[in-house]
Amino acid sequence: MPKLQPKQIKKDKLLDQGVSLLLEKGYHATGLKQILDTVQIPKGSFYTYFDSKERFAAEAISHYIEPFIHRLSVHLQNPELDGLAALKAYYTELIAEVAKSGFKGGCLLGNLMGEIGDTSPLCRDALLDAVERYSNLQQTALERGQRQGKVRLDRSAKSMADLMLNGWQGALLRMKVEQSVEPLQAVCRDLLDDYFRA
Fold first, then answer.
1. How far, in Å, CA of 73 to CA of 119, rounded?
2. For residue 22, with 0-12 CB atoms within 10 Å meaning exposed, 13-18 middle and 19 or more buried, which class applies?
3. Position with higher pLDDT, 24 vs 38
4. Three-class SS state of 197
5. H or E segment at 18?
6. What pLDDT was estimated at residue 4?
């Protein structure tokens, strides 16, 4: 793995902190000062990395989705798991982590879609790109499951991937209100254990 330059390390720290604050407080309630104070970078240095708060949020969206894409990719590379089992293992891990975190935050993508998805073209484009990449990877898992005879063939893998993404986002909102993983478990049960199965 290539060694990161100090400038990239600082930028990544800014993005890590930005993701945490955006998840906790949302876009409008997150001030640059909070982020900079936590990372101990002067305000002038912020503009070395980002030309605006909006650009920062857009890059934070891309930064946020990477670990999820990587983790799902790892499950898909496991030769012992078929496509559907890989999805199930991935979502089971996410549910366990959400329970440990005390149902905080939800999903940055879903949160920002609701807050600024229709008011910031820059962030909207970043959200659309992140959702497309994430959905495409789940579509790949479902297509593999179809080839392996585990996933139904009378629905397209794309429509099922979209349904999973939409159901999961809605369940995350209910999870925050109900303070329970049951909505997340229900989506996985109803789709991965039932509706998607061949």
1. 32
2. buried
3. 24
4. strand
5. helix 6-25
6. 54
| Helices 6-25 and 108-116, axial angle in degrees (round to 10) | 70
Note the pLDDT of residue 163: 98
CA atoms of 140 and 100, how far apart (whole Å) = 29
Distance CA 163, CA 157 (A): 10
8-state DSSP, 4: P
Q: 20, 27, 2, 17: which is closest to 49 by C-alpha?
A: 17
Q: Is residue 1 predicted with pLDDT exceeding 70?
A: no
Q: How far apart are CA 69 and CA 5, in angstroms?
A: 24
In this prediction, residue 174 carries a pLDDT of 93
The candidate with the shortest Cα–Cα distance to 63, out of 20, 26, 31, 115, is 20
Give yes or no for a contact between 139 and 158, defined as CB atoms under 8 angstroms apart.
yes
Closest to 131 measured CA to CA, from 92, 162, 97, 106: 162
